[in-house]
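Hello,

Our lab assistant flagged a job as stuck in the queue for most of the afternoon. It eventually completed. Since we weren't sure the result was trustworthy after the delay, we are filing this so someone can double-check. Below is the sequence as submitted and the structure that was eventually returned. Let us know if re-running is recommended.
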Amino acid sequence: MADGARVWVCRDATFTLGERTLVMGIVNVTPDSFSDGAMFATADDAVAHGARLADEGADLVDVGGESTRPGSDAVEVVEELRRVVPVIEGLARARPGTPISVDTRKPEVAVAALDAGACVVNDISAGRDAKVLEIVERAGAGIVLMHMLGEPKTMQDDPRYDDVVAEVNEFLRERIEAAVFAGIPEERICIDPGIGFGKTVDHNLALLRAVPALRMLGAAVMVGASRKGFIGTLTGVEDPAARLEGSLALAVLAAAHGADLVRVHDVEATVRALKVADAVVREPTL
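-- returned structure --
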């Protein structure tokens, strides 16, 4: 690792940033996710899918047990635990050494997931529950802090901003400060502008163009735009699973704008596309 290299540290996993775009593969263990709900609703199916994503080149596998699609209701802690813990345990056995993330905003789930083998807490509420920050600090885990306007149930009803880029940037700056104040080093923090979480099409596009500004905050930057509704709006493709081309375009453009990670459903195709994109946009190590 070169002196002064940017890194994202997540327990025993250390990701060097900037050499190539990292890929987080999505495993939804839910009956109602917007794209693949109920496809991997059993632990065995979800573990097999996560192992396949790792084999396809995912740098991390992100396991989520609560759908946060627009209009979704919150899931009880006991049910979310029932969904995600066996999958994380199974993945840790099936693909030892593959970093696992848990997509949750609940401290109880974060604790159990980290105990089961996860090394990252991917929190759509950006650690606004201070207990999540305390748990991540104690575990030496990585954290993803994401911007969301309101709650999943109502976030897309009428999202408004005076300046979406400035407001999201300021929110994430404040959340980085809160995490650091809780004892989490900046090298363990990743930020996510929350594409589709309380944003119109124009808001999403503005934030994607503004990735370089997010980089200035110092933390790793992740973009999660895979299969989202605004791709359907732009392309006319209603079926989320058929939005591959739009998802690949956004992953490549996110890389070109300096994103460190992309969170995607279609890992193999994204890894291939990014190999080409990174060859163009990343400076070679000489």
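-- support follow-up --
The delay was a queue issue, not a problem with the job. The result is valid. The radius of gyration is 17 Å. The longest helix spans residues 77-94.
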